[in-house]
Amino acid sequence: MRLGALLTLGVVGVALILLFLGPDVRSLIDTLLLALALAPPIIRQSPRAFLALARLKYWLLNTSSTWELEARFAVVGSGMDLRSLSRSLVANQAKGSRTLLEADDRCIFQLTRRFTVELTRPRWEEVVPDCAAGDEELIVSISPTTVGYRDSRHFLEGELLPLLELLRKNLQTPKELFSLTILLAGDNPFFGLYVQLVGCKAVEEFRLQFVLPAPHGDGRVTVDKEQMTVVSSTIEGLRKAASSALAFRVPAGGICR
Fold it and tell me: What pLDDT does residue 201 have?
């Protein structure tokens, strides 16, 4: 049976169930979840359908994930005032933001009562890669933060990236590197697709890496069994690579390894 015919049967089946259950929202969600459970024959013929249905399931259940970010900024010269930078970042945020610790080489503050940010200036005796002599490096770490799937785009676009853009504006940095790790609490759709295609569940290690095509920035996404890691040397590359990862989609022209 062709994919189109199977999809038609699926739509008809859902329509019949809705006819009996009515338009109640909870019933609709239950019905859609039931449709997901009945979808394997269609999924086996279309990886795109598998990932699309996985995305729908994550959205319906609002599956949570844990986000961690580390950013490194090269700073020209050696006059960086970490305390002033920390106070400026807190002052630019909404109510509920507050400073937790202030020191010459380390500051910690909480933003909108949601996540904690740590600014660190490596000690001189530590090796600071990619920095010219006399320059400094700022390391920004965001503590593990739980984010629901339906809130993930807002968290990325409305909270995380604006903070990084504000940091870049304040520092006038010539070089930066971002690493975002998303620990998946639910089933990893990319891994599930691999198991579906290979037909073997006893997989000890799994890794997929894809690089965004040039027009989309320099983002790189690495997918393991339980997490996705996005690395980029630009904020725009981070935005586009993270969006692709969260959509469980390899962009057209992306290179898989």
Answer: 59
